Amino acid sequence: MDELATVGEEVGLAALSGPGLVMVAVAAVVLAWFTIWVLSHLLCICGPNEILVISGRRHVLADGTSVGYKVLHGGRGLRIPILEEVNRMDTRLIPVMVEVRNAYSKGGIPLIVHAVANVKIISDPALVRNAIERLLSQTPAQIAKVAQQTLEGVLREVVAELTPEEVNEDRLKFAGTLMRNAKDDFDKLGLELDVLKVQSVADDQGYLKNLGRALIANMIRDAENAENGALQAIAEAEAQARQRADTATKQAEATVLTRRNQLRAELAKLESEAKAVENEAHMAQETARSEAEQELQRLRAELERLRLEVDVAIPAEAERRAAEARARAAAAPVVETGKAAAQALALVAEQWGQAGSLGRELFVLQHLDELVARAVERVSGARVGELNVVDGGDGSSYAQAVAMYPAAVARVVANTAQVLGVDIAALVGERGK
Predict the structure, then answer these.
(1) Please, are residues 200 and 128 in contact by the beta-carbon 8 Å criterion?
(2) Domain at 91-205, CATH class
(3) What's the DSSP call for residue 421?
(4) Each residue of 358-373: b (16+ CB within 10 Å) or e?
(5) Tens place of pLDDT for every residue, the chain, 433 residues?
């Protein structure tokens, strides 16, 4: 059995070689081409600048509406040959030149307006079906013609609402008004107005030109008025500047005069201060001189004192000390004599102590004459320079004045007796008895 299978395979290979192999290759190529042709008719590819409309079958939209086509904007889709047809709509910009003549503006002035616009097929899913229904299979020139006619009508409507001045002076506002008024019409057509520019505005009657002349005249007049006003303002400014300069000059002169007066006052003040300082310096100099003289006098006095001390005091002190030495030398015997007398007096005092009061009285009585003599001598030593006695005529005052001498002697004796502790009057009375 295995051998029979091997023989069969060899027979098959032999049959495929030669003309059979060519037929197989041709069949493969035809199959591939057919596949490609089928796919090219079944597969639809949509570019970014176009819209594909596949029509032939019913499609239900999101809002429940039933339409007989399908819209593709970018990407790819499949169609059924013979049953479905594919149409392409270009979404690139289409330039449209718009020119309107005898467009009556507000006020009845006919204008000539030139504008340029760029329109395209709208790509909004909610409005693209308007373009499909109205503009499908039309060329860009045909679409431009429709847009031009629509813009001319809108342009006449807008011009009728504006004055020539507004149309000519504010073209941006004019173009914006055109785009807003054209939007509803373009939405119904399925178009989108991308750009609209007004290139020129003119009129056959020369209204705008004359208006420009009036504006130029007004501008010239305003410029002349402005120039006159500027010249007047300059003249006023110069007058004010001169006035301010004069005022500033006067103020400066007043300020200078004030400063000069202040300077004189300051100089006078400084001069007075300088004189005061000079006087203070002179007084300080005189004070210092007097103090120096006082110090000099003190030094001279000190020198004189030292001189006197050297010349007088020191020799006198030396002499005193020498005298004291001599006196001590001379008094040495007297001292010894005094010591002997003191011993004798001590013995006498001892005896007086033993004798008691009788011994003291006896001693007083023995020396009574000597005590009285000493008292008389002491009273006699007193000198009265001048004594005035006023007497009443009986001589008693004179007698009293004469009796002062014995009374003074008696007083001295009484004081001496009081010192000794002895009543001399009583002692003398007992002795008389």
Answers:
(1) no
(2) alpha beta
(3) T
(4) eebbebbeeebeebbe
(5) 454 445 445 544 444 455 677 788 888 888 888 777 766 667 787 888 888 887 878 877 777 777 777 788 877 777 777 777 888 888 898 999 988 888 888 777 888 888 899 999 888 888 888 888 888 888 989 999 999 999 888 888 888 888 777 777 777 777 888 888 888 888 888 898 888 888 888 877 767 666 666 666 677 778 788 888 888 888 888 888 888 888 888 888 888 888 888 888 888 888 888 888 788 877 877 777 777 778 777 777 776 776 676 666 666 776 777 677 777 766 666 667 667 767 766 776 666 566 555 666 666 666 666 666 766 666 565 666 565 666 666 656 656 665 666 666 666 667 666 666 666 666 655 544 4
Please enumerate in sequence order all residues whose Cβ is within 8 A of that of 135, keeping only pairs 6 or more positions apart, or say none. Answer: 89, 121, 142, 143, 146, 189, 190, 191
How many CA atoms lie within 13 Å of 124's alpha carbon, on the beta-carbon side?
A: 12
Every domain of the chain with CATH number 3.30.479.30 lies at 91-205
| Predicted structure pTM score | 0.42
What contacts 24+ positions apart, CB below 8 Å, involve 76-82?
Answer: 76/43, 76/44, 76/45, 76/46, 77/43, 77/44, 77/46, 77/52, 78/42, 78/43, 78/44, 79/41, 79/42, 79/44, 79/54, 80/42, 80/56, 81/41, 81/42
